[in-house]
Amino acid sequence: MTYLIIDALDECITDRPKLLHFIATQSSTSHRVKWIASSRNWPELEKRLEAAGHKIRPSLDFNAESVSTAVKIFIKRKVSQLVEQEKYDERTRDAMLEYLTANADNTFLWVSLACQNLKGTAKRNVVKKLKSIPPGLDPLYQRMMHRISESDDAEICRCVLASAAVLYRPVAIPELVAIVEQLKDFANDLESVREIIGLCGSFLTLREDTVYFVHQSAKDFLFAKAYGEAFPDGTEAVHRMIFSRSRATLSRTLCRDIYSLEAPGYPIENVKPPEPDPLAVSRYPCVYWIDHLYKSKPKSSENSVDNLQVPDVVDEFLRKKYLYWLEGLSLCKSVEKSVVSMTKLWSLVQEMGSQDQLTQLIQDARRFFMYHKGAIESYPLQTYASALLFSPTGSLIRHLFQHEEPQEITIRPAMSDGWSACLQTLESHSSSVRSVALSHDST
Predict the structure, then answer these.
(1) Which of 65, 110, 265, 372 sits between 20 and 30 A of 79, alpha carbons compared?
(2) Which H or E run includes 34?
(3) Domain count, the chain
(4) 160: helix, coil or strand?
């Protein structure tokens, strides 16, 4: 027998419908495989799992006694850990057990956060601090927001929280420093960054130096109950700041053959990041800078980033760093994701009514990317070899980066002036293709 356990389906953000469909269809294929999934009881989730056969749906609401027993065991364990770490006496231990048991409301996360708040508290202050911890997650989050707002690091903590809330994935500490403007002075003092994240302890946690939200409810609270405090200028301003920092990071770090692979035929599956990794701070910006620009909602060419108009910023980046960015995407193994990103950039420029020159550049960059995607994805340095040599002579990208063409090749292929009708060559299928489906978002 095989048991597949998926916890907290409601916290899955990306492609949740696909995951639910997969569970529903696969759960009936074999009697030897059992699926166990937990979630908040959202109607949408229940509806999508209707197709699953042989369902049993126990509700924790009807098993409150079992949950209560489990939470009490959890409380005893957490209190025992605190007593051992802080050398509390029996009287303090009993007070902690009594308060936590009375106010936990059968919520493991509340117990965990409350005990985290007690760490480092002197024995004489434990009872007083316990009584200041309100029951319920939202009041506890609100208390933490108030505590952060009154600290000496209030503004930097707010910016870290706001940035973490809009990021598309958890980030490592060096990536966070590169993304958050207020952390730029701590690039060589990562211990201070860890302390700042610790100040956001009821919201953020560190696992192997990667920043996560402690729970989806913490992120939900920032958007639903503390929006004005976390995002005083709106989420668009946070996205704009992240885009600005991302562009600056990429402009500073991206270059040709950043991993010193040298051979144009070096396959991506053999690539190992060097130590130190020159892409360590650039991985997140490399994949998501367009997404943050798009979410910043620049409505017209008058919108500015770093006192420059958005079209000018994008134009300069594409003209100076486009090929190096494509190499970076290949090394980050994120070429597929950026097919959608380029479509977003194209639609954004259309909405802004930007000048024809930028529109033509993006259109050419998009065609270059789609046409040579297979080679760039598999062999990062083919960005400067086959991709340039087999592009039309009238390609703007080829003209801008002609200095990167391999000089040792003296006999060059005769190419047409413009792009052919071919958009992209699809590979990797092992037998004949009988049908093709094209998605609306160009992926």
Answers:
(1) 65
(2) strand 33-37
(3) 4
(4) helix
**Average pLDDT of the segment spanning 27-50:** 83
Task: Read off the tokens for 393.
Answer: 């002579």
Three-class secondary structure of residue 59 per DSSP? coil
Tallying the residues shown for the chain, one arrives at: 443
- Across all residues in the chain, what is the average pLDDT? 89
Which DSSP string do the residues of 382-407 spell out, in sequence order? Answer: GGTTHHHHTS-TT-HHHHHTGGGS-T
Tokens 């009594």 correspond to: 98
Contact 110, 221 (CB under 8 A): no
Q: Which three-class secondary structure state does DSSP give residue 52?
A: coil
If DSSP states are collapsed to H, E and C, what string results for 64-127? HHHHHHHHHHHHHHHHHHHHHHHCCCHHHHHHHHHHHHHHCCCCHHHHHHHHHHHCCCCHHHHH
Judgement on whether residues 174 and 277 belong to the same structural domain of the protein: no
User: Would residue 418 count as lying in a domain?
Assistant: no
Query: pLDDT: is 197 or 421 the higher one?
Result: 197
Domain extent for 27: 2-57
Q: Per residue in 100-131, pLDDT tens?
A: 999 988 889 899 989 988 888 888 898 898 88
**One-letter amino acid identity for 51?**
A
Burial of 64 (0-12, 13-18, 19+ CB in 10 A): exposed
Q: Which residue type is seen at 16? A: R
pLDDT number for residue 301: 47
168 shares its domain with 206? yes
Residues 258 and 385 occupy one common structural domain: yes
- More confident site: 443 or 72: 72
Query: Residue 167 to residues 175, 213, 290: CA-CA distances in angstroms?
Result: 11, 11, 12
Tokens of 183: 């952390």
Q: How far apart are CA 344 and CA 361, in angstroms?
A: 15
Q: Give the contacts of 45 (CB within 8 A, at least 6 positions apart).
A: 9, 10, 20, 39
- Count Cβ atoms within 10 A of the Cβ of residue 1 and give its class: 0-12 exposed, 13-18 middle, 19 or more buried: exposed
31: pLDDT confidence band, cut at 50, 70 and 90?
A: confident
Give the model confidence (pLDDT) of 191-247 as tens digits: 999 999 988 878 999 989 999 998 888 999 999 999 999 999 999 999 999 999 999
Neighbours of 174 (CB within 10 A): 19
pLDDT of residue 415 exceeding 50: yes
Whole-model pTM: value is 0.81
Q: Give the separation between CA 123 and CA 324, rounded to whole angstroms.
A: 57
Q: Does residue 169 lie in a domain region?
A: yes
pLDDT in tens, 7-23: 988 888 778 888 988 88
Q: Is residue 435 one of the residues assigned to a domain?
A: no
